[in-house]
Amino acid sequence: MISRIAQERSHLELSTIYEVCRILGDSLDLQRTFRAALNTLAAQLGLLRAMVVLPVSEDGQLRVHSAVGLTRDEMERGQWQPGEGVIGRVHFSGLPVVVTNVEDSDEFIDRTGAFGPQEGKRLSFIVVPLRTGADHNAVGVLAAQRELQGVARLSDDQRFLTMVATLLAQSVALHHSVSAEHQRLQQETTRLQKALTADIPRRRSLDNVVGQSRQMQRVFAEVHQAAPSRATVLLRGESGTGKEEIARAIHFLSPRKEAPFIKVNCAALTESLLESELFGHEKGAFTGAVGERKGRFELAHGGTLFLDEVGDISAGFQAKLLRVLQEREFERVGGSRPVKVDVRLICATNRDLERMVQRGEYRADLYYRINVVSIFLPPLRERREDIPPLVAHFLDRYNKENRRNVKVTPEAMQVLTNCYWPGNVRELQNCIERTATMVEGGSINGLAFPCRSNRCLTQTLHHIDKADAVAPAVVHFAGRVNGHSSPLPDDDEVLTIGPAERLAESGAVPPRHFGPEAPAGERDRLVWAMEQCGWVQAKAARLLKVTPRQLGYALQKHRIEVRKL
């Protein structure tokens, strides 16, 4: 009889161990696997309830991790201090404890309220440590309760639960190892991401191009993306934004960097001279052609040809240029032999080509041919965070060339940051060089700039609307009558004049907009406040001590365009 019961017990334990191993190997989610393993134990061994208790803090505080036969409230109450009760003792000593009857044990402390004595029942409490191999340090405890009936032997339960606890302990150790490795990988990933982010300005920097702003970083990324290909690149942007430097960077980042980089300013040459310059000419092709001359296309063979101001070429030459781009061959002026070239083309313009195509001033097929990859260079006023590093770059170069040690004060940097810069980086460079040359002493302060004393002639360009570089300028201004600003003329009365004509008619430079004190006229005061506050209406309203709505009405009244910086 005893032999049969022992065989049944052995078979039961073997099947239970197999099922627990299968459950623990199914997932690394300890909550789910431990709960399923405890359910298997309770069902197979006839346990009333069971729980796994793990340390939750460095000071050794213990808490119920997973359980079967306990409510959520009972699990939340299950917390023991280090060494407290049977749970704390087993975790501290690493030795199992069997409480035959919880009603008679002084050491038994039930924090959950589920394992306590019940009238008419003899309840045992078995606690075994979760240990891995020969390690005497317990990583947790496994506790179970059974009602003593018949021939139940607690020693067998202790032995079997000890085997199960070893499997649970291995799962806990594996989970800790995986979690530690995962945390290490996360920290390493975070470190690499930070290093990568910090390294972006250096990696995406271009020679002779200064730009830390998000707009310029986007330009640098587009340059790095487009440079390795053979696609024609069209650089768009206002005059002075650095299109030539970007074109040069594209060339030196491309596989053609060892070949020539040839540049041509199309706006500086007439149609006949431009044709001869690009295509070359044969001997005797025209008066003065005493010999054969290669054009820029031939000189750039295998390399890059940069056509600056490509929007200014005449309609007749547009057709000739289109044929070269399509066929990659041309004929020299006065010649009949076709010349084939392998040239990567980069074009640049500050013109509104789309509007020119609509007006019939620019061939649509040529526009599509050169507008393969477009890179837009933002004006300096839209990337003001680049002004300080640009100032440092230009001033450092000036100091090296002139053997000086001129510095910029914070007040002067504030003036430079608030300027509208219609001439963009080129104007900023000229301003730095001019001011550094004329300043007395070794520092540039806020009053050293010509604009602070109404001597900056380019200030008249700050409020000129232009469709492109060569279109007529529309100047919005208010006259002054008896020291007060007069209303702007009606829309049909807005004058279309150039800056020189505006200065000649007025007989004086425009009113100063960057001074520390507000002008007298209402319109001038509005423009001054907006420029002082970087064209942010809410800040300007606070500066003028009016509401934003009142400021908005005033801007509409005086027809002041709110510029986006």
SSE layout:
Blueprint: H1 2-24, H2 30-45, E1 49-55, E2 62-68, H3 72-77, E3 79-80, H4 85-93, E4 97-99, E5 123-129, E6 141-147, H5 154-203, H6 214-226, E7 233-236, H7 243-252, E8 261-265, H8 271-279, E9 280-281, E10 293-294, H9 296-299, E11 304-308, H10 315-327, E12 329-331, E13 338-340, E14 344-349, H11 353-358, H12 364-370, E15 373-376, H13 387-402, E16 407-408, H14 410-418, H15 424-438, E17 443-444, E18 464-465, E19 474-475, E20 480-481, E21 484-485, H16 499-506, H17 522-532, H18 537-544, H19 548-557
Parallel strand pairs: 7-14, 7-15, 8-11, 11-14, 16-17
Antiparallel strand pairs: 1-2, 1-6, 2-3, 4-5, 5-6, 9-10, 12-13, 18-19, 20-21
Describe this structure in words.
The longest helix is centred in the first third of the chain and has 50 residues, at 154-203. With 565 residues, the chain is an alpha/beta fold. It is elongated and about 125 Å long. The chain contains 19 helices and 21 strands. The model is unreliable at 199-203, 467-473 and 475-514 (pLDDT under 50). The protein has a six-stranded antiparallel sheet, sandwiched between helices. It has a five-stranded parallel sheet with strand order 8-11-14-7-15. A hairpin with a 2-residue loop joins strand 20 and strand 21.
Brief write-up:
One of its GO terms (molecular function) is DNA-binding transcription factor activity. By secondary structure, the chain is of the alpha/beta class.
Features:
alpha/beta, 43% helix, 19 helices, 565 residues, 6-stranded antiparallel beta sheet, 14% strand, 5-stranded parallel beta sheet, single chain
